[in-house]
Specification:
Blueprint: H1 6-9, E1 15-22, H2 30-43, E2 48-52, H3 60-63, E3 73-74, E4 77-78, E5 81-82, E6 89-93, H4 109-122, E7 128-134, H5 141-153, E8 158-163, H6 167-182, E9 187-198, E10 205-206, H7 213-221, E11 225-231, H8 233-241, H9 245-248, H10 253-270
Parallel strand pairs: 1-7, 1-8, 2-6, 2-7, 8-9, 9-11
Antiparallel strand pairs: 3-4, 5-6, 9-10
Length: about 270
């Protein structure tokens, strides 16, 4: 953390690590990876927070089955919503602030920027080992607003980039890598999502898309390849139903893939 007095540090004072989760395009499963990383880190004994700044598509509240609770305030600001009884996993999302979950967020840039500023400065996270920031696709106003507001109060450890194997996705992530370099954000690693399809009957993994695009991109750009997560119907169903996939299916290869990615990320953060 940068040197500053306690009045400037605010809500992130007791947060050890801040990690952005980025993707160059939509539909690559960035929120899925954010959710599963958070659950994996929690199972590893870490206190984890998720700041969901995908303002137009806040899906993480559903993935964690927290519904739409009322957001309370304390002296330090908004109290995040806890996704587990042990209060090891907390979440803040615009989804908690909307009267109608089907309502579209039709906002111009300044209004989005203002809310992101509030999310960064006014959420009372308390003690956290890792805060994961789930961002919208691309390299737009929201990303710059998140970075600028975070850097006022905390060091940003870096970013995890999510891609799918196809060239069209890795091409977009290549632009995201350029964004990270231009904004001086360390790339903590690349995750290839939807890397093969796990048959629900025999558990065999078939490559319905191409494979290895994320690993190749990591090599070309000198980035760390964190690992691959297959397209697994059990994972999809767990996210739809808001169940903890890692708790429900510890024997699956997908479980192993996610746990290994989280372990590597945590090791990189602590080294």
């Amino acid at each position: 953390m940068t040197n500053m007095d306690s009045s400037e540090r605010g809500s992130l004072d007791q947060v050890k690590h801040v990690v952005l989760v980025l993707s160059g395009k939509g539909g690559v499963g960035k929120s899925t990876i954010t959710t599963e990383l958070a659950l994996a880190l929690r199972h590893a004994g870490q206190k984890v927070g998720i700041l969901d700044v995908d303002l137009c598509g806040p899906s993480i509240p559903r993935m964690l089955s927290v519904g739409k609770p009322e957001v309370h305030q304390c002296d330090a600001g908004w109290v995040p919503v806890y996704a587990d009884p042990q209060q090891q996993l907390s979440l803040m999302s615009i989804g908690f602030l909307m009267d109608d979950p089907d309502e579209a967020v039709v906002w111009r840039g300044p209004k989005k920027t203002a809310l992101i500023g509030q999310f960064v400065s006014d959420v009372a996270w308390g003690e956290l080992d890792v805060l994961l920031v789930d961002t919208p696709p691309g390299t737009s106003d929201e990303h710059l607003a998140v970075l600028e507001n975070l850097r006022k109060v905390h060091k940003v450890d870096g970013a995890v980039l999510v891609t799918t194997p196809q060239a069209v996705s890795t091409g977009d992530v290549r632009r995201e890598i350029t964004f990270c370099k231009k904004t001086d954000v360390k790339i903590l690693g690349i995750v290839e999502n939807m890397s093969g399809f796990v048959c629900p009957h025999c558990s065999e993994c078939s490559n319905i898309f191409s494979k290895g695009g994320g690993e190749e991109l990591a090599k070309l750009t000198g980035s760390v390849f964190l690992g691959s997560v297959p397209l697994d119907p059990l994972l999809t169903a767990s996210l739809e139903e808001g169940r903890d996939f890692l708790q429900a299916f510890p024997e699956s290869s997908t479980y192993t893939a996610i746990i290994d990615i989280a372990k590597t990320l945590l090791s990189n953060l602590e080294s």
